[in-house]
Amino acid sequence: MNNPSITKSQQTIVFSTLLLAWFVVNILQSVFTEINADEAYYALYGQHLEWGYFDHPPMVGLMTRLSSLLFDGNLGVRFMTVIMQLACLLLTWGTINKANRTLQNTYIFFTVAFASVMFSAYGFITTPDAPLLLFTSLFLFGYKKFLASMDWYAVIILIIASAGLAYSKYQGILLIALVVLSNLKLIKTVKFWFIVIVSLVLILPHIYWQYINDFPSIKYHVVSRSSGFKWGYLFEYLPNQLATFNPFVLGAVIYAMYKHKATEDFEKALYFIIIGFIAFFGITAFRGHVEPHWTVAASVAMMILLVNKSSTDIPFAKYIRKFVFGSIVLLLIARVLICTTLLPERIQFHSKQQKYLATQEIAGNRPVIYSGSFQNPSLYHYFTGKNSTVISSLMSRITQFDLWKFQQQYQGKPAYIVMHIDGKSQTYTSKSGLIIEGYFVNRLQTTDHIKIDFETTTRLQQSQVAVMELMITNPSNVDFEMNHQELPARIEVVWINNQDIICTPCQITKQIDIIKAHQTIKTAIRFVVPKIDINKYKLGVCLSSDFGPSINSIFSPIEKH
Questions:
Q1: What is the architecture of the domain spanning 451-557?
Q2: Per-residue pLDDT, 4
């Protein structure tokens, strides 16, 4: 039993068996767990491959495209996710100190990996976090080799990993920055700058995509997601992190870092990644809600750290085997439950398909138009394969659908609108008994493509009657009807202060009936300035319809009288 060759052979067999079991479990989970809204959205990414998307870099779109080439259904979205996590596990195991890759630590490694809640989930649920975890493990694998020899093999790995991180999720840039901060001597080496320059060259297509689309991702993540300070955002952050990593896993990590000071450069990097991710997003909780999984990349560093420390700290290893392994039972139950209909429908792991098939039954071959966000049209398209889109407004956030502009294909054509509008909407009952509310239009018309430039003729103050000159442009190939028979539009002055939106009606001094294709019309409006603190608001001019006020103009600070 003490023969090293036998131990190594046992370890290899056990590791391979557990890796195969991991693959089988995730494949089954992928097949029997209903697709969620985000995954349906990313599946659409894959059907429209680009160098970037509004919410994320393009790697997740490439993943779903490759999956769809191999499989239909759920595996057509999730297969590459399953494969990526297997690669992530292999790379992470290969990064653990060679002397610590023992039979006992094999069990500890898979225990920690499975018990790390979000890491485990991203082995069968497709999100940008799946490639983020893969390239995090590849980066740490390459970084350890780079510290050992700085050879070109390690340099190439780090270049691929750095570009992969940037193409996967923007948190990848944070991970690279934290590693560099942990070892500032890197910036004095020529090969470090070679890695930086080549990696930047590789991600130039994505940077160019951001540029030609007016940097939508940066505006969304840095500006739009800032909703101001709320105590609730702070109070929910730590409990969310406990749920992300598993309280027993996170507790073990804190203990290990407290008891064992980092002495080597690689271990310092692990500490910087773990502390840096949790601290960075803890700070961002002062400006808005932090999604729990934004820190998930730190789980790879945690796994390496915990296995390495288990080899030198026997009581620590016993804790992991007893408490961390014990928590796996609950996770297994949870993973079985999400494959069933036993959980509440609001958790959205079942019963979505029937709803969208019922909607398609009512709509027929007409495109289905939603208001709000991306979830409904993404799921409708996934479950039915039919055309759908969402019309955003000031009351909802912009998404990739606003860049795709599918609605321009449907202008002037019959459509089914899923929305409640008094006096218009009707309830329809499908053959399955589901009730769908909406209404049909013979000629769809949306307002989001119309452009409005404005200029105030006077400074503004509360309650005054103000006049603004407008230039309204229709850049499309279809005439726009202000008095459209089914979807008429009206001009409104809109005042915005963060989440506070005030719409003010106005009178047009020169009546407009039709704005012909590619035509620009000059007119003016009169309106009453509402009783607000003008210094705190920005002003814009919008067209409103059943879908709400669309974003037709820039929003400018108000010049006070």
A1: Sandwich (2.60)
A2: 54
